[in-house]
Amino acid sequence: MSKPFLSEPETSTTDTGVLLLNLxxxxxxxxxxxxxxxxxxxxxxxxxxxxxxxxxxxxxGIILPLRSRKSAHAYQSIWQDNxxxxxxxxxxxxxxxxxxxxxxxxxxxxxxxxQPSVMxxxxxxxxxxxxxLLVVPLYPQxxxxxxxxxLDQLWRALLKQRVQMAVRSITSFCADTNYxxxxxxxxxxxxxxxxxxxxxxxxxxxxxxxxxxxGDVYVEHCRTTTQHLVSELGLxxxxxxxxxxxxxxxxxxVGPSTQDLFNQLPQAGIKKLDVVCxxxxxxxxxxLEEINIRGKADFLAHGGEQFHYxxxxxxxxxxxxxxxxxxxxxxxxxx
Length: 335
Ligand SMILES: C=CC1=C(C)c2cc3[nH]c(cc4nc(cc5[nH]c(cc1n2)c(C)c5CCC(=O)O)C(CCC(=O)O)=C4C)c(C)c3C=C
Ligand SMILES: [Fe+2]
Ligand SMILES: [Fe+2]
Known about the structure:
Layout: E1 15-22, H1 31-42, H2 52-76, H3 85-100, E2 106-111, H4 118-127, E3 130-137, H5 144-159, E4 166-169, H6 177-194, E5 199-205, H7 209-213, H8 218-233, E6 240-245, H9 258-264, E7 272-276, H10 285-288, H11 290-301, E8 306-310, H12 315-330
Parallel strand pairs: 1-2, 1-3, 3-4, 5-6, 5-7, 7-8
Helix pairs in contact: 1-2, 3-12, 4-5, 6-8, 6-12, 9-11
The chain binds the ligand C=CC1=C(C)c2cc3[nH]c(cc4nc(cc5[nH]c(cc1n2)c(C)c5CCC(=O)O)C(CCC(=O)O)=C4C)c(C)c3C=C and fe (ii) ion (2 copies).
C-alpha cells in the first residue's frame, strides 16, 4: 500500500523556488507515444467534462486509435532533432529565467501531462530545500482546461506533503503591461523585416462553448489581451480580427473559428494576412502545424496571396523581459 504522505528531510529549510508549468507533449512523434499522452490529457475532467464512464468508452474505443495516428503524423511535420518544440521552448525559457533570477532561487519546469510531471518536480524541489514556491502556469489567459488543470496537479502534489510548502500562484497576466508592450514590439519587428499584411489575425486556442457558458473567464481574457494589443499597435477595427483555433470534437466551441476565417478572408478582399498567437508562450503543434502549415495552405488555396505567421516571442529576450518583473513582484517578502 502506498504511504499517504512522503518522508521529509529532518532539517527545516527556507529556500525559494519558481516552478513554470506547461501543457506537456508526447515523448516521440509516433502513434505509440502520442496515445498515452492523449489518454492522460483527454481523461482530465477539466478538459472533457462528459460523464466519466461514457467518455472513457468513447475515448478508448474510438478517439484514441484514430487521433493518435492523425496527431503523430502532425507531430512528425514539426519535430526537431532535439525533440518536441513545446518541450524545447519550455526548457530554454526555464534556463533563461534561471540565469536572470538570483542564484538562490531554484527554477524548474514541469508538465501538466507527461514528463517531467508536477509531482516529481515538486518533490525534487522540496528535497533541494524549497519551502516557498511560486507557480507560474505559462498561459497569459486563464482557462479552466489549461491553467486550472496545471494548478490541479500542484494541489495534488501538496496533498502528499507532510510539511506543506508555502505556495503562491499566478493565475493570469492577460493585461500585463510588459506582455502587451513586448508583444507589440515583437509584431512591429516582424513587420519591419517581412512587410505588413492587410489584416492581423489574433488566433487564440479555443474552448468548448459549454465551458464558457458555465463561467470560464478565458474568452474575456482573450478579448482583454486583444483590446490592449490593438490599442498599443494603433490598429483600426478593420485592420485586425480575433479568432479561436484548435477545435476538438463535435460539440460547439467558442468562435469565430480561425479555420473558417482562413477560408473566408480572401473572398472578403483580404489577400495578405499576418497571424499571431498571443496565447502561446512557446511555439508548438498548434502554432507550427495547425497555423503555419495547414492554415497557410488553406488560406492560399482559397485565394489568399501572402500568409505570414509571426512566431511566438523568444525566451531569451522577450519572455524574460515579461516574466522577470512579474515573478519578482510575486516573490516579495520571500527573498
Ligand atoms: C491556451 C491554452 C490551451 C487551452 C485553453 C487548451 C484547451 C483544450 N485543448 C484541447 C485538446 C487538445 N489540445 C492539444 C494540443 C495543445 N493544446 C494547447 C494549449 C491549450 N489547450 C497546446 C499548447 C497544445 C500543443 C501541445 C504540443 O505538444 O505541442 C491536443 C493534442 C494535439 C492534437 O491531437 O490535436 C488536443 C487533443 C481541448 C479539448 C481543450 C479544451 C477543453
Ligand atoms: Fe521577437
Ligand atoms: Fe489544446
